[in-house]
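Morning F.,

Quick status update on the modeling queue. The single chain you submitted on Monday has been processed. Sequence for confirmation:
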Amino acid sequence: MFLKRITAAAVASTAVAAAVVGVSHQTATAASGVPSFDHIVLVMFENKDYKAINGSSKAPYLNKLASEGAKFTKSFGTTHPSQPNYISLFAGSTLGVDSNTCKDLGNKENLGSQLIGIKKTFVGYSESMPSDGYTGCKSGELYARKHNSWVNFSNVPKSSNLRFSSFPSDFSKLPTVAFVTPDLCSDMHDCGVDTGDKWMKKHLDAYAQWAKSHNSLLIVTFDEDSGSSVNQIFTTFVGAHVKPGSYSTSINHYSVLRTIEAAYGLPGLNEAAKKSPISGIWN
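Structure tokens below.
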């Protein structure tokens, strides 16, 4: 009889503890206003003004995709040239980088290290990178490390730096967060808007449609505009829990990073800590 009472008490205690954990998780999610996604995939294109994509006949797929999700009419890059934008989206700061020269940034905290720290996973997939874990500054005419921010950090393992050919066709096997970097033609840097638009449809439409019913999210954005002081870029979120529509809230790369962090209960890094997670777009 005594043993039964102890067992019952232990079960009750465990149930209470589980309930407390559940409430804590719900509170954290509600506080940020951002759903906790199973997977987030972010794709970054290159050097195009918002008006070069929005409504353009050269970008029919990107415009169709935006109509299925949240299109941001006031989204901005953080600086010029390319590389510091990629770093700011990954680390919440340019970390003093103001050029496209290869940089080793050591063990400074970043989204990858944050996710690893809470037992989540991060992988960056780069098209035309010659081998997994590659750290060279350039390879051929199509791969440039300046568009691969995660390789700059020693606390992101080589196993998180993969070729795009490794992107799984079974999307349930994706890491928690994946960044995708098309090569210098596919990302519109050296080739036209229509080339990037077709690449996006071919390679990621299947994930975009899958995400809607699998608690996952696709983010499509650009590093910067064509070099103006305005630096307005095209950005859309598509997937589960997203209310389709056009949103005029002003956002930048730090806002996007802060939103990804909030989805997993992570604190904001550097300048991202000064931003609120993107709200008003969630069901």
